[in-house]
Structures are given as structure tokens and as C-alpha cells.
Amino acid sequence: MVIGFLVNPIAGMGGSVGLKGTDGDLYFEAVRRGAKPVAPNKAIRFLRRLIEVNFNEEILSASGIMGCKYLEEVGYSNYECINVPRHRGLTSSEDTKEAVREFLKRRVDLIVFIGGDGTAKDIYDVTNGKVPILGVPSGVKMYSGCFAASPEAAAQLLKLYVEGAVSTDVTEIADADEEAILRGIPKVRVYGYTLSLRHEYLTVPSKDFSSSGSPEEKFEVAEYFINEYLRDNELYFLGPGSTVKAITDILGLSKTLLGVDALYNRKIVAFDLGESEILELINNYGNAYIVITVIGRQGYIFGRGNQQFTPRVVRSIGGKDRIYVIATRSKMRSIKYLIIDTGDPKLDEDLSGYWRVIVGFNEEKIVKVVPACCIEKFI
């Protein structure tokens, strides 16, 4: 087999600083806010695991920071570089598309990419779903169904694929509906369909495109949280999502739908925070808690759309006893376990175990939480 490999080096940079992506001018805003690249580390993790599992198929890669740089760094021997991008500056979606066009000319059997939904869309625009693709998650949001659970899972999956132990299936390329989001509706739409690899736990399905629960269910969960766990003189960081937003709706407050806001004494004291602002508030207020929800059908509690909660933030909070997970019964019905992917595999393993999830009024469910980096060891 010949595997096409490319990296979107700026994918996911906006997450830790509170941006919803890095497309277009958002990249420059992410840099202004102090964001650092995350995709290169994901690429290194993926390639190192490939070597560990004795993968030695030929890899055709984009040059420099779009692929070959990392193959050289880890010492992978069986690869060839193509002359894309043809410059040394900031890469673009057109560079991604040009690389994919070169891959198709060389008849690669599968394309592996480091990126998020935006990168998946760029690849799909060229392949039109005719060549299998596999995403190594590195975006701010990964709602599409073509992603492995982690860089390590992607490497294991690729090894199984070349051995004939894993087959392909059709899955969705998803895209956030920006117009709906501006109206306060967290809606995701299907952009297209592509072939991808499918495995029981090494891959994750696309985000649930149906309702995450009725308004009544969300208000029930929120009301119970307010009555049972919301205390005065304590700081709460409210994560993204309509279920968490139901808390502020009941309190008569505004909330950033896809951002992280800070709540203190039943008032919002800061909106749409990034990592540095969260750490500053923890330092100023002392005791703090995180309130998050679950990505429908995928089961992620960290690592999908809430990368503001970085490893530094989670450690500063003080452990899982200070993290509340809330989700409707409808959302939890199809989820067997929850996944944590902070970007720090050691932290993710430390946080694994059984967690309480608030699913209704006076109703909590014990659910297993597993680290994305080594999910197969914990299921």
C-alpha cells in the first residue's frame, strides 16, 4: 500500500485561546492571543506509534511542515516527499487540496491527515469521497465521522487496515452551521460522505446530528445542578453547549453558546475565556469548578470544542472532584463510555475511571471515563 500523509500545521491552534477554529484571519487572531501549534505534536505522536507497531508501508507526504518534517524527525525510513507546499510561508487550504491532487495522481490507497473538520472538508472537495481518509484529531471541533479517537489509535488502526483486519465504511463529513450558531442554535450539518476506516473503539462516530435532548430535559438537568451543586462564593467555569447554557437560562443570564464563561454568585463575571484568562481567574478567586457536557454519540467530555480547558487548567482546578459533567438522558442513552482527550496522555490516564454524570433532576449516572490515547486498555 501507499499511504498519503499530510498535516495542517495550524489546525486546532484557536482552541486554547477561545476561538472556534483557525480558518482565514482567525489564525492571526489566535497568534495574537498567544496560541501555539498543536498539530505538530499530534503528528509526532501518530508517527512514533506507527514505528512502535512495526508499520513500514510506503508513505507519500507533503513537504516540510505539512508532513515530511515529522517523518524525518521520528526516523521513519520508507517515505517520499512531494513538492507541496511550493513555498515556506503560512500554509493554506489550497496547499492541502494541491497535496491531495498529487496523492490521487500517484494513486495512494488511503489518505491520513492531521487536522479537524475544515481539513476534512478540503480533502473531500478533491477526493469526492472516492479514496478512504483517516483523520488524526487536531482541530477545535471534530464532528465528522472520519476521525480516530487519538493519534495513537490512528496508528493502530492503520496497521490493522494494511493487515486486512479493518475495513472501510461510509461516514459523514460534517460542518458547523455558522448561521444557526449565530442564532443560538448549536447545529451541525452534513457536508458530504466519504469512505473511512471503522472500528468499534479506535474510531469515533460523527457527532449526533439530531437533538441532544428536549429543552425540558436540559432544564431538568440544569435545575438539579443549580439546586444541588451551585454554591455562593465559588467560581464555576461553564463550558460550551446548550445543556450547560440551560443553567444560565434558568438564572436569567446570558451565556456564550460555544465558549467558556465564568459564573460567580449567580452572575457571569467573564465571557468567552481562553486558557490564560481561566488561569488568571483561578488565581484571583481560589476555589473553582468546571461544568461540561458530553458530545452527542461521540462521548467526549474534553478535547472536542472545549480545548480552553487545557491540561494546565484541569490540573489547576484540582482533579475530577471539581469537574461536573451534565447531559440529558437522551444523549447518554447511546453512549457506553466517555472519552477524555486533554492533549496530555498522562493526565488523561490519571483522570480515567468512573465519573458521576447528572442526567436528570435528582438523577445521576455512573459512567466509565477512558483516555483517548490508549482507549483499548481501559474498555
Notes on the structure:
The model has no long low-confidence stretch (mean pLDDT 92). The protein has 379 residues and is an alpha/beta fold. It has helices at residues 26-32, 39-52, 68-74, 93-105, 117-127, 151-162, 178-182, 215-229, 242-251, 275-285, 311-317, 329-332, 345-351; strands spanning 2-7, 58-62, 79-82, 110-115, 133-137, 168-176, 188-197, 235-238, 261-264, 267-270, 288-292, 300-302, 323-326, 338-340, 353-360, 363-371. The chain folds into 2 domains: 2-197, 3-Layer(aba) Sandwich (Rossmann fold); 215-377. The protein is globular and about 60 Å long. Strands 10-9-8-11-13-15-16-14-12 form a 9-stranded mixed sheet.
Which descriptors would you attach to this protein?
alpha/beta, Rossmann fold, 9-stranded mixed beta sheet, 5-stranded parallel beta sheet, 13 helices, 16 strands
The domain tally reads 2
The largest β sheet comes out as: 9 strands, mixed
- Distinct helical segment count: 13
- Principal-axis shape: globular
Order of helices and strands: EHHEHEHEHEHEHEHEHEEHEEHEHEHEE
Structural class: alpha/beta
Helix residue percentage: 25-40%
Assigned CATH class of the largest domain: Alpha Beta
CATH fold-level label of the largest domain: Rossmann fold
Q: Trace the largest sheet across and list its strands.
A: 10-9-8-11-13-15-16-14-12
Tell me the number of strands.
Answer: 16
Low-confidence stretches: none
Task: State the end-to-end distance.
Answer: 31 Å
> What CATH architecture of the largest domain would you give?
3-Layer(aba) Sandwich
Q: Specify Rg, calculated over alpha carbons.
A: 20 Å
What fraction strand?
A: 15-25%
Please tell me the overall pLDDT: 92
